[in-house]
Amino acid sequence: MADSEQQVFRLPRPLRLESGAVLSHVEVAYHTFGRLNASRDNVVWVCHALTANAEVESWWPGLFGVGTHFDPADWFVVCANVLGSCYGSTGPLTSNPETGTAAYHEFPLLTIRDLVTAHEALREHLALPRVHTLIGGSLGGQQAVEWAIQRPSLFENLVLLATNARHSAWGIAFNEAQRLAIFADPTYEQATPDGGAAGLRAARAMALLSYRSYDAYGRTQTEPNDEVLQDFLASSYQRYQGDKLVARFNAYSYVSLSRSMDSHHVGRGRGGVATALGRIQARTLIIGISSDVLFPPAEQQVLARHIRGATYAEMDSAYGHDGFLIETAQITHFLERFYVQTYVH
């Protein structure tokens, strides 16, 4: 298996969701990069964040790609789009073959565990008996830690960045505020591909405040002209970022996946967070970000405390939560130190 164009895996049977609802037709879009070696032990599986896609080299270029830590010359990299997204996997805008229509705002609730179930089916389809490294940040980290609990013997190494064991009241409140902006857009209820676009634009502007930091805005968006009374750099930046997301995403997927994130709780039905994390067998590296206000380092320290033998590292970054996508030199440094404990690679 070499580098691939986007491929689509169709689950062989309907998917019963944690909520009890059933998705009768499920597809998972995915990419692979590099070649699987003869012993099939060079697999790196990437779990992406909220609005990302399966083309990991496009959004994590300092970590995946030629000349990076996860060079496809050495690794067989798999990245699959999550259910609920709009990048090829089944989501709110996917037409139901039986009805010929999409569900839009009536798409059923997906939990993090449902996202894992779909990707576990893909792993079985690809006949990958062992994964050398499972890695993810933010929502991707939530998926990765849940998967490592469900299948403890499957993963040799687990790398979690800027994520948690249970989505916080703070994080849920941020997500709900963004959804309220979308719901306030009257076009959302019209159930068209462009429905809720104005609300999504506002939601993205709100979300960005949780992704970045006070210092980052101060450094890049402070007005150099003391005479300006309106149309500030920071104002135009928020509009610009809202427009960028509207051009590539949709409000229905945003609502669906933010609700998935809210559902994240590894201790649900397992006797609590500590007991659930105690099931993980993978060697684990957990990376926090000093300036992350959405997933503060205390949340990663909880993971490190309850995953046996876990290594904790913290990045000093002015970029806030987005540091896990930007600070690839620091991440590479931590990865090299982590792997050298056992491996020479």
Automatic annotation (TrEMBL):
Catalyzed reactions? L-homoserine + acetyl-CoA = O-acetyl-L-homoserine + CoA
Which GO terms of the molecular function aspect are on file? homoserine O-acetyltransferase activity
Tell me the active site: S138, D292, H321
In its keyword annotation, does this UniProt entry include Transferase? Answer: yes
What EC numbers are recorded for this enzyme? Answer: 2.3.1.31
UniProt-annotated location(s) = Cytoplasm
Gene Ontology CC annotation, any one: cytoplasm
Q: Name one Pfam family in it.
A: Abhydrolase_1
Which Gene3D superfamilies does this entry report, sorted A to Z? alpha/beta hydrolase (3.40.50.1820)
Please tell me where substrate binds in this chain. R204, D322
Named in its record, the pathway it takes part in is: Amino-acid biosynthesis; L-methionine biosynthesis via de novo pathway; O-acetyl-L-homoserine from L-homoserine: step 1/1
Q: Which UniProt keywords apply?
A: Acyltransferase, Amino-acid biosynthesis, Cytoplasm, Methionine biosynthesis, Transferase
KW Amino-acid biosynthesis (keyword) present = yes
What the protein does comes down to: Transfers an acetyl group from acetyl-CoA to L-homoserine, forming acetyl-L-homoserine.
Subunit structure of this entry? Answer: Homodimer.
Q: Which family does it belong to?
A: Belongs to the AB hydrolase superfamily. MetX family.
- What is the protein's name according to its record? Homoserine O-acetyltransferase
